[in-house]
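User: Last request for today: this protein with manganese (II) ion, please.
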Amino acid sequence: MSASDVVTNLGAMLASGGVEVVDCSGVLGPETPILQLPPDFAKNTPKVEIHKISEYDNDGPFFAWNWMVLGEHSGTHFDAPHHWITGKDYEDGYTDKLDVQRLVAPVNVIDCSEQTQEDPDFLLTAKGVKEWEDAHGEIGKGEWVVMRTDWDQRVDDEDKFLNADETGPHSPGPTPDCIEYLLSKGIVGWGTQCIGTDAGQAGGMEPPYPAHNLLHRDNCFGLASLANLDKLPAKGAILIAAPLKIKHGTGSPIRALALVPKG
Ligand code: 23J
Ligand code: MN
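Assistant: Here's the final one, the structure of the complex with manganese (II) ion:
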């Protein structure tokens, strides 16, 4: 089939609903959980604010619009390579410079929801990924890989979502060897349903925050706070994860969309 036929057929399938568009973003608003770094870092991202300019009133009789206070790394969002020191030298490592061809790609969904229900500190390893590949097929070059934990069920309760105690945050994520293995397969990026791409306890790993450190070292992307991964097949969907074109941006909220064949 020619590329032209593929796109024509995809268009027809989208129009008929044979291919379903699944919303993999959470709601962005004042209640959206925001990462709080440990107190040794004084500055943090503020909560999302939405301020009304007008809503069919004296300030705008025919129109409604708002302005916002919004961090780059708030809610369902994209981490660009420039976000981490290991990715600082990539000229295309910013949200306004990156190669958009890489943002639309097949997605591999690794279901860890059973393990993470038992253990909020569950870590996906290279071994775990290889076992998933034995069951579902190989992860290919240029593809997304996302970790399903159903953490989006907690998103309306910030305490439950961040899941922190006196020993720090407790949320699932990857081991360093997991990310190294995925990078060896040539993935475009790694996504999770938690506040960041790394596990809650990843500050104590070697290297610290391995998803951030290793993905961005290799000019790859991160996705965080993804929703509705339980509605995606293990393989066979396409994920569109496009950040705003923020000048010199290190990341951006996204409307993550998955194209899923129905039936
Ligand atoms: C800054 C510092 C550490 C982390 C993060 C940001 C994120 O998780 C993020 O949103 O990229 S771990
Ligand atoms: Mn981020």
